[in-house]
Amino acid sequence: MDKWKYFDITHKHHIICNPMSEEKIDRLCQLLNLPKSAQVLDVACGKGELLIRLAELYDVSGIGVDISPYFIRDSREKHQARDPNATLEFVEMEGAEYVSKISASFDLTMCLGASWIFEGHRGTLRKLKEVTKSGGLVVVGEPFWLKEPSEEYLKADEMTRDSFGFHSDNVRFGEEEGLTCIYTIASNLDDWDNYETLQWNAVNEYIRNNPDDENNAYLVEKMEQSKEMYLRWGRDTLNWAIYVFRKN
Ligand SMILES: C[S@@+](CC[C@H](N)C(=O)[O-])C[C@H]1O[C@@H](n2cnc3c(N)ncnc32)[C@H](O)[C@@H]1O
User: Fold this and answer.
1) 67 CB less than 6 Å from ligand 1?
2) Is 132 inside any structural domain?
3) Does 97 map to a domain?
4) How many CA atoms lie within 13 A of 105 on its CB side?
5) pLDDT at residue number 104
6) Closest by CA position to 227, among listed 155, 156, 149, 148
7) How many whole angstroms separate alpha carbon 25 and alpha carbon 112?
8) How many angstroms separate the alpha carbon of residue 233 from the centre of ligand 1?
9) Residue 216 to residue 27: CA distance in whole angstroms
10) Cβ–ligand 1 contact at 64 (below 6 Å)
């Protein structure tokens, strides 16, 4: 099954495609306190919600990059519906390739929930720092271990212990890269449950509405695996946070 179609189906009801409530996203937007002239880059922008909220709040201009044609379509439609005069551009492209080609530097750079693009959390911080102005902000979203993961969980989810760090590691990595961490927001169980179980709901709904889709068996199998992984281990072992860093 096409990967991006799969995510389009599973994330049909997500406004924010990460385990963070909309209230916390609003708190983050307020905290960023951007000037009107700010230029923002969001790598792996998903459905463009964060960028559009920032444009609505501060009138900033921005670029959202995402590899999914479905999410870029959603972002463009939302831009037109919510704030058509905002200077926003949504680019369908591989994130690392986009960043490797730009010479601009931004007041705010972000990558929430897609650090594999830059080979992990540290690589993401390093790359975003390069394209951020001095005094600007780097915002990343990254999972962290709540406790040591069991071997069984790592094997079942095809991860290693080093796939993620603890919350303190996620802060420390940025500080070792010369950034100053100025704020963090962590998900709670309700945020995680909402993120995970909205996917169960979306798949169930899709199959009911499209009973003849040849992908249905695959969708059910993947969702059952993901449900098992989350309920058995993920919910108690992994959490997720947004980290705000200042480039000095
Ligand atoms: C967990 S979602 C986060 C989306 C968004 N940042 C948010 O928080 O709502 C991960 C996003 O990464 C995008 N993505 C995955 N691989 C990518 C790549 N190589 N380059 C650009 N975007 C990518 C997906 O399409 C998806 O939108």
Assistant:
1) yes
2) yes
3) yes
4) 10
5) 81
6) 156
7) 11
8) 24
9) 38
10) no
26 within some domain:
yes
Q: Is the CB of 17 under 6 A from ligand 1?
A: yes
Residue ranges in the chain modelled with pLDDT below 70: none
Q: Whole domain around residue 166: which residue ranges?
A: 19-192+238-247
Tens-place pLDDT, residues 114-129: 999 999 999 999 999 9
Model pLDDT, residue 23: 97
Q: Residue 25 sits in a domain of what CATH number?
A: 3.40.50.150
| pLDDT at res. 5 | 96
Please state the domain count of the chain: 1
Which residues in 39-65 are b (16+ Cβ under 10 Å) and which e? bbbbbbbbbbbbbbbbbeebbbbbbbb
- Cα–Cα distance between 28 and 24 in angstroms, integer? 6
Atom of ligand 1 nearest to the CA of 113: 1
